[in-house]
Amino acid sequence: MTVAAQQAGTRVPAGVKPRRSFSLARHGTLLASLGILAGFLLLWEFLPPALDVPKFIIPTVSDCLVELKRMWFQERLFSHTMSTAFYTVLGFAIGSALGAVMGYLLGMSAFWEKVLSPYILALQIAPKVAFAPLFIMWFGYNAMPKLLVTVLIVFFPVMVNVLQAMRTVDRDLVNLARAYKLSRWGIFRKIEMPSTLPNLMAGLRIASTLAVIGVTVGELVGGNTGLGFLISYGGGQANAAMVFNAILFLTLIGIVLYTVLARVEEKILHYLPKAEH
Amino acid sequence: MALEYRGVSKDFVTNPDNPLTAVRDINFRVEEGEFVSIVGPSGCGKSTILSMTAGLYQPTRGEVFVSDERVVGPNAHVGFMLQKDLLLPWRSIVSNIEFGLEARGVGKAARRERAMKELRHCHLDGFENHFPYQLSGGMRQRAALARTLAIDPEIILLDEPFSALDAQTKLLLQNSFGGTIAAAGKTTLLITHDLAEAVLMSDRILVLSERPGTIVAEIRIDLPHRDQPLKRRVLPEVSRYAAELFGHLKLEEKAL
Hints:
The structure holds two protein chains of two kinds. Chain A has eleven helices and no strands. Chain A is mostly helical. Chain A is globular, with a radius of gyration of 24 Å. Chain B has nine helices and ten strands. Chain B starts with a strand and ends with a helix. Helix content of chain B is about 35%, strand content about 25%. Chain B is globular. Chain B has a six-stranded mixed sheet, with helices on both faces. In chain B, strands 2-1-4-5 form a four-stranded antiparallel sheet, with helices on one face. The mean pLDDT of chain B is about 85.
């Protein structure tokens, strides 16, 4: 008892102590990161003009900022951004819900998994964004095509991650639950579902970055709203600054979604020991 | 009696022409409150015996009885523990101990009460709200024992529960388990390859042969302090018993 208690006892202060040095180290990396950003922005501002690169090829940082202001007031940048963000989140939610359900269903049936796996593999390899023109032919120039592309692109990483995790659930844990006479549903709810949660969350994180791509492609190919539309519109006008700004905002949407998911994951998976660096 | 094997054999059919016989014609009885160990070379079907007792699968021939009832599937009489603690990492310790009670229609408050009681019996007071990763290997195994005892099984099956621990933790945990199990008065079947462990903890030892496993010897341990393996450890007779086991397992011939 005492030995084990001591072991557990030393662990608590051990977790507290390194925090100070850790924050110092993080300060260092933060400073270095900011330094690289500043250097990059300076190069971007002064190098292209010095090399006589025309504005419509590489606009400088200040050009982009001027264009940003114009886009905000004259191109309804805010509402385009909101539209893209909305469809990103919606497509992500639908696609990952379908992917998770499908992953769990296939994970419970070895038969159907084997039957369907060649088709799943084929669909997984097929470039989903290439379906966008088809969807426009079928559904017209509305929100449906971009939503479908997003759902399709989000679906697979979530499903594959869940399926993979279902295959590797600890058989002994399942046997333990069986010995305790849990029902099939009980085993799923109390063993399989929580066991696969880390993989599900990893799948969602991958999917969140893909969702932005799905919506963007949908908007690029057809429609008159969203940041993807601004990219094709700006491209048509040889307005590179507009394209740069739209890409920046798309990235921001992706970062926000990813960060939210990472936070949720940290909350849900609090019981996993943190990797020590 | 608590457990009886009558002419039990188990074949695993991976290749229909050549079924693999894991254990053959096993007969033994375990009386109520008795602590019996099964030792044998690796791959002799020790764990097959455990799984059949737990009802996870059926014998090919013969019958297994637990508390005079024939085992036909997972049942409430049996609690088992493996080398892995099988604690659910997403649950706190107390909630892990409650796990076995959840499918039994025990109310929430009653579950918590039982779990806290077993937590104290296994000397884990104050750790109820910790998560498994925060506990040492020995403490985790004690939590697993608490979970096993919480369902109040008539027989406890231990499948090498100490083999993943370091030597000192192992001794302490054997002592702790011996005391807790004796106090609870539980019938216990321990599967182990550690001969000293079998001698220290058991009333009786069954020796299994190589596959297909069958019982080749039965040794009664007439020593005091079954509830305190650390005390039994210093008795001079222990080495004689271990030597006897050693002989039955024909380890000397294999060493050549």
